Amino acid sequence: MRVPIISTIVVAAAIATMIALGFWQLARMDEKEAMLARFASAQDLASPVEFPRSTQEIEGTLYRRSNLVCGEVLSQRTTSGRNLTGQSGVAQMARCRLAGGGEAEVAFGWSARPQVVEWSGGPVEGIVGPAGQEARLVASPPQAGLEPLSPPDPADIPNNHLAYAGQWFFFALTALVIYVLALRRRRRPGE
To answer: What is the b/e burial string over 70-95, where b = at least 16 CB atoms within 10 angstroms of the residue's CB?
Structure first.
């Protein structure tokens, strides 16, 4: 039986790529664990940091106490959130123009009912949490007579890289088994 050269090269390259992606995910797992450990230790630091105004400053400020002055409320919205006791409800959010320039999102409190609570801004203290590609200040103490929101917690960040690595290794093994079965089928007499 002749082994098809081009097919073998393509399958071998695909398997090698999948194995490399599996090892890359294992390396990402270690990086993520180190980042989560940094975030967990940041929670214990008492000194406040300046609220980040650029994406480069965000990681060093996450899960630390900070403050800002909401000079103008640009918009408000609600989203699901939990209070300090873990009760589900509504997080009251505001997009603010900061005194001194720039914008920030402020989670200024929790309410049980889904309604927008009017807030006019002003000085806010709290914990810096992630908000997509930017940071958000979770007010502590809350504003506008609301209850406090549950503070951001690095334990809420998933670290699924081991599972992803396992998937890539499984895909590589599956590709190898399918290719071997295809070769065996091709080797049968009369085909």
So the answer is: beebeebebeebebeeeeebbbbbbe
Residue 13: exposure state from Cβ atoms within 10 A (0-12, 13-18, ≥19) = exposed
First to last CA, the chain: 11
Q: Decide if 184 contacts 20 (C-beta within 8 A).
A: no
pLDDT in tens, 19-56: 999 999 999 999 999 888 888 888 777 788 999 988 88
DSSP structure class, residue 180: H
Query: Cα(96)–Cα(109) distance, rounded to whole angstroms?
Result: 15
**Which two tokens mark 146?**
């609301």
The CA–CA distances, whole Å, from 28 to 25, 36, 61, 153 equal 5, 12, 21, 20
Structure tokens at 118: 């009017």
Model's pTM, two decimal places?
0.73
- Residue 89: beta bridge partners? 81
What is residue 21's three-state secondary structure? helix
Q: Per DSSP, which regions of the chain are E strands?
A: 49-50, 65-82, 88-98, 103-111, 122-131, 134-139
- DSSP label of 74: E
